[in-house]
Amino acid sequence: MPVSHDLYQDLHYPREIVQQRRQQDKELDRLLDDYVDIDNQVLAAEAISAGNFVDEDLRRLKERRLAVKYMIDRQLQRKG
To answer: This protein's superkingdom (predicted)?
Structure first.
């Protein structure tokens, strides 16, 4: 069963800090929304990947999710 990544653990920032900063930073807010959207797409793709979803498409989604995670990390460092 597909499991969502724990973004806050990956970023090494407490959820509370990220949520506070999110309220003050529109770009961070947008990036976090993008991450959740892409993560949900990955989870859905993994759930149906029993031959119905092309592995290359799933790989691209995962790459996009990783890229957004790096942008979130940079945005957090910029304000930190």
So the answer is: Bacteria
CA-wise closest residue to 43 among 26, 19, 62, 18: 62
Q: Would you list the DSSP string of 15-58?
A: HHHHHHHHHH-HHHHHHHHHHHHHHHHHHHHHHHTTTSS-HHHH
Tokens of 23: 């309220």
Look up residue 12 and give its DSSP letter.
Answer: T
List the domain boundaries for the chain. Answer: 7-79
Confidence band (pLDDT; 50, 70, 90) for 35?
Answer: very high
CA gap 9, 12 in Å, rounded: 5
Sign of the dihedral through C-alpha 34, 37, 40, 45: negative
